[in-house]
Structure formats: structure tokens, C-alpha cells
Amino acid sequence: MYYLRFLSPPKVGAGPRSSLTVNAVLAVTTDLGDDFYPDDLTVQARVVDALDHEKVLQSQTHVCPGYSRALKVSLSVPGKYVSRDACVHVAVNQGDTSSDDVLDVWSTQFHLTDKQRSEPLVERRLAMSNGSVLRVLEETGDSIARHIWDASLGFLQYFDRVLATAEPTSELQRLLSRKQKRPLRVIELGAGCGIVGIAFAQLAKSDVLLTDLDVALDILTSNIRLASPAPGSHLEASMLDWSEQLASTSTQYDLILVSDCIYNPDSSMHLVETLERLSKQSPVPLILVGYKHRHSADQLFFDRMQQAKFSTLTTCTIQLAPDGDEAGPAIKFYEYRLQP
Are 50 and 85 in contact (CB under 8 A)? Predict the structure, then answer.
């Protein structure tokens, strides 16, 4: 899976004959930015009206060479649009059907006047199976902790699969099929941008608490404001450091979501401890862990889960690629419950 990214967010400059120039620097990278798209790729950059994205103020195609680390994009906007609010959308050219594994990108809103620049944030828009649109902001800087990672997109496919299957084959399906008098109580650990927990709240009636370190709370709060929760759903964000004692709570969670949080051997020890503390309630919550294998140290998490007496209930692998292409990244899912 690859992601169109703004290395430098759109900036407005003065152009000839009262026109304006919108400049940006792009790259097409993997989720952690450690590799680049290997083939030439034709992308379409559009400056659109911030209030009406169907109104295109300027559009231009560019070829991004394979393994390119930076593509400079410049669009000349007619002077009649000066002072209008706009944003930039960049996507793979519709005629290029070989690159369905590239996620498009939207800039934040900016003013079409000289020297104006969009915020160092980008927006992703993903169509959900129930017809809603998942809108998620992520940062453009070096902090990959507040970027979308592959496993979170795998979760969206996993949720779709669960909701589309009539015969329950997983504990999550059984949980969702129960007749509930109240919304499901869900907590996401290490939420980052919050895409997984927000997606769940848009698909199923649930009270979802998104948790991460303090530095992530601003973007989590912003993404909650953009969310379109299902009727009866509610979203909140809170700071949670796994290495610290959990604050006492009367909330009994039905489901704990963990997406791509096991890569650090040091923090995974505290993650297991946090899962233990959250599981010491009745009924014992279901834990859903999704991750993309990155290195051999990932195994430490699973060893610690076994030592802590968590039972593996089901496992599943989703190929994160168009039509389940086996060449795409493999996202593995594990359902756990603490043994009595």
C-alpha cells in the first residue's frame, strides 16, 4: 500500500498577470515513509473550492518517476479566484488502473492570497460499507505516530468482512449480533489518528474512547469533530500512558482495539500489562489486535500475551491490496480473551 503525501504543504505565490501559483512538494511512499512507489505514476493535482469540491479552479497532471523522493507541483490559478478559500486534492490519474493501491490526499483549507500556506495537516477520505465517509486528518511532518498505518486500513476491510458475513465465525461477529440494550463500550489503545475507533463508531452503535499519549490528543480531537458516528454512537479522546497506573474507572468495556502497536518491544510489555488491567472485569472484554509484521521483535508481544494467560480465540489475515492481491501487505488479526 502506498500513500500520496505532501512533503511541503501547498503554498500560494504571486503569478504573472494577477494570477496566483499554488506550489507543493509530493511523494508516494509506504506507510512509514521507508520506501517509494517503484513505477512511473501519473497523478492529477486539483485546486478546488473549499466549500464546493466539485468546483475545480485549476487542474494539472504530473508524472511522478518511479522511486522519486520528491515531486514539485505548481498550479497557476486565474486571478478571478483571488481571496477565495481553496484546498488541493492529489490523486492517481483515473486512467491509470494499475495503481489502485495508492491512497489520495487532500490539503487543509487555505486562502488564495500571496504567501498563504495550508496547515501542516492532510486529510484522507475513505468510503465506508454503510455509505458514510471516514474523514481523517494526519500530520505532514516526520512524526509517523500521527500518520495512517497499513494495519488501520486492514481494520476497515476486517470490519466490512465481519458486517457482511451472516454466519458468525468470529467473536466480534457474535458480539455485534447480540441484542444490546446499550451501545457497545469500546476503547482503542494507541489510537494515533483514531481511524480504527472512529470507523467502528461509524459502522456500529458504540461508545468509543480513543486513547494515546498526550501529544496525539489534538489530532484525535480534530478527527472526532470530522466524524459521522452511527445513530447512538459517541466518541471521546483521552490520554493513556501504558507505563502508568490506570485511573480507576467504572466503565466495563466490551471490546478493546489495538492497531499496529506491537512493534516496540519495550512498550509492548506495558501494552500487555494494560490489557491485563482492562480485562480484570466481568464480563471479560474481547481484544482485537491487528498488525503488519515488521521485524522479529514482534513475537515478544505474542509471547507475553501467552505468559499473561490470554487465550487466542481466532486469527485472520487480510491482504491489503485491490481484490485481495497476495502481493499486498498482509495484515494479521488476533482475537483474545483473558483466561478465567
Answer: yes
The CATH fold assigned to 2-119 is Immunoglobulin-like (2.60.40)
Residue 176, CA distances (Å) to 92, 127, 154, 209 in order = 36, 21, 19, 18
By the 8 A CB rule, do 70 and 37 touch?
no
Q: What is the dihedral of CA 93, 99, 102, 104, to 10 degrees?
A: 20
CATH 3.40.50.880 fits 142-338, yes or no: no
211-222 as b/e: b if 16+ CB within 10 A: bbeeebbebbeb
d(CA 214, CA 243): 13
d(C-alpha 93, C-alpha 99), whole Å: 9
**Lookup: cell for 72:** 514539485
Domain ranges of the chain: 2-119, 142-338
Residue 6: burial class (beta carbons within 10 Å; 0-12, 13-18, 19+): buried
Asked if 318 contacts 158 with a C-beta cutoff of 8 angstroms, the reply is yes
What whole-number distance in Å separates Cα of residue 174 and Cα of residue 313? 12
Which residue in 67, 116, 63, 69 sits closest to 88, CA to CA? Answer: 116
CA distance 76 to 66: 26
Say if residues 235 and 208 touch (Cβ distance below 8 Å): yes
- The pLDDT tens digits of the residues spanning 322-334 come to 555 566 789 999 9
252, 181 in Cβ contact below 8 A? Answer: no
Give the largest CA-CA distance in the chain. Answer: 75
* Cell numbers for 116: 498563504
Rounded to two decimals, what is the model's pTM? Answer: 0.94
- Evaluate whether 9 touches 107 at the Cβ level (below 8 Å): yes
Q: Which three cell numbers stand for residue 312?
A: 487466542
User: The cell 475513505 sits on which residue?
Assistant: 126
Structural contact between residues 214 and 206, judged by C-beta atoms closer than 8 angstroms = no
What confidence tens digit (pLDDT) does each residue in 79-96 have? 999 999 999 999 998 765
